Structure formats: C-alpha cells, structure tokens
Here is the input.
Amino acid sequence: MDRRPDTLSPDTPFLTDPSAQRVCVVLEDAGHQAYFVGGCVRNAVIGAAVSDIDIATDARPEAVMALAKAVGIKAVPTGIDHGTVTLVMDGTPFEITTFRRDVETDGRRAVVAFSDTMEEDARRRDFTMNALYADGRGVIHDPVGGLPDARAGRVRFIDDASQRIAEDYLRILRFFRFSAWYGDPTLGWDPEALAAIAAGLDGLATLSAERVGAEMLKLLAAPDPAPAVAVMAQVGVLNALLPGADPQFLAPLVHHEGLHDIAPDAHARLAALGGDDVATRLRLSRKGHKQVDAIRTMAGTARGPRALGHLVGVDAARGAVLLRAAMALGDVPEGWTAAIEQGATSEFPVRAADLPDLHGPALGQRLKALKQDWLASDLTLSRAALLQRGT
Here is the structure.
C-alpha cells in the first residue's frame, strides 16, 4: 500500500496566507517550482511560531523579477547576485531564492551557482531539520532525512559534518544555537558533530566579531541555553570565542529566571559567563556593552533593588539581582521587581539649594555623600532625614 505523503497542518500560517499562496501560484503558473523552505517549514513541523517566510524556486532571479512586474507585485533585488529577490505584498516581504549549489567555499562565504533541483539546494544547507521544503498545498519534501530529526529534536549536519563546517565555520555556533532552541537534550550529542567541531576550532578565528556576537546573542536568548553552552565549554568553543568565560553560573541564572517568571535575557546570561574583553570579541553595541557591564558589576554589590533600578535601569537591575542569586551572593528579596521599577523612576530628593551654606567643591562632596547614603538605604531615606545627617 502506498504511503501518503507527510503534510503540514492546514492552518499553517503560510498555507492560509493569501499573499504567500499568490507568490507560489505566480511561479507555478509560469512553469516553475515553488517551495516554502527552511525555518518556516521546520517550525511548522514542530509546532513553533512561524515568522520569516522563505520560498525556494528553480526560476532564475531575473525571471522572478519579470513575473512579479507582470502581475504588479513589488520586487526588490535584495541579493540578486546570490539568487535572492524579495517580493513585497501588502507590506509583507517574502524572500524568493533560486535553487543553488556551492562551487567554492573558504569557511566564511561561498561562491554559488544556480541549480535546477531541490536536492542540490538541500545539500548546501547546514542541518537536516533546516532542509525541509513544503509546496503550496502543504506537502512536505525531505531530500536529506530532516523530518524525523526535526520531530525528534535531533540537530544533525547534512552528510559530512567536517565538510559542512569547513564551508562556514559559523556553523559551529549555529549547531549549538539550534541545539538550544530545537534540540532535545535527553538525546545526547551527535559524536560526529562534536568531533568535527573540535577539529575545526581554529576556523573560528576567521569569523568576524559581528557574526560571532549576533550568533551568541541568539543562542543565549533560547529558553535554556545552559546545556548547549556547557558542551561548548567542554569541546573548547567557549574559550576560543571568550577566553576566561565560565558557564558555571548560567544554569542557576536560568533557574532563577524561571522561578520568578522573568523572560530570557541574553545580556544577563552573557554577564553570567564573564570572559575577557567581551564587548570587543562579540562586537556588542554600545547599549549591549553597557548592559552586560552593569549587570556583572552590580551583581557583585550589596545594592538593594530600588538603588539598582535607579542606577542602571529596570532590565540591568533585574539581571543583576538574579545573577547575584545565581552566584550565591544574595537572596532575591520579596517585592523586588516592583522595587526596581520604583527605583528606576525615583529622583534624588536633595538639591544644591537645600545646602545654602556650602559652595564649590564642598557642596559637590556633600551632595555626593548624601546620595551614597540614600543609595545605601535603598532609597528609603527622605529629604528631611538626609538633610539632618551631619548637622
């Protein structure tokens, strides 16, 4: 008896989206193939949220542009040399990419040629679960055996792991990121993948800090990245990227986030790892660097939650309180989140006009001393109480 093909749920977002369906119809009516591909199909299979919708086709980019123009769809040549055209319908962008095959790679970028087959296109991708295709009717096409891997939560390189890594060393970090987001830690870790990663560590040095930083922040934003980061440390990846980093406080931090219903904070988790020259090695934004530094610094102080909120803002203060608890440097006080929010909007109650007998450096020193007293009280000392001090 013939086996019926695997199909997606009829209520899958891109199967019910008229704009996405129209793109497929335009391509197919012109005699071309059109398949939803990659993350949108993977997420639909496992029941995760579907966001960006990518479509693969055998149509060349110029043909996609011409077809779109003929039917009045806005087409933007966002990466036409690499086969990608973005079609915009009702404000929603759809990336349409021609089937490709790698001609040459150097560990950072690939020279590609266009292909006519889904199979060739699939084999240039990284993990089996990312090489799933679905046509406009929801029928799943699985050229490399990714469907059972996606359903089981098994992150596996396509074909030879060493070759996939040598094509782009960022795939080492992507392996851990996808393991954190979509992997089942009870399955253990693919020994072939870990061996290939350990052998390819030197390639990490060829990657730009921007790419590494972006990938690390995506990894650390996973619901629980601690198991993946622990294995990164064991195989030498963490030290290669962030010398001096230590994952020992990451799992306790994730635990405390869950206990107190705090959303994952990649910057707080990065602060938990520590390491040398993190901002430069990961090319953090100025805001991100300030956030990580504030969390790490304030976690090592005895400041109360109101004072933390006043000094570094709500997000960094939350991270500092939880990291302090993860490092066993203090308890999480009752009512701490409300106290942080209160502190973030509080103003130091004493002004220069309140000290008319002082001028110049003496005034500045007095104001500074009173503010330290106010912070030490966790903002509980009133203006009157502060002005009575030292009088």
In short: The chain has a mean pLDDT of 94.
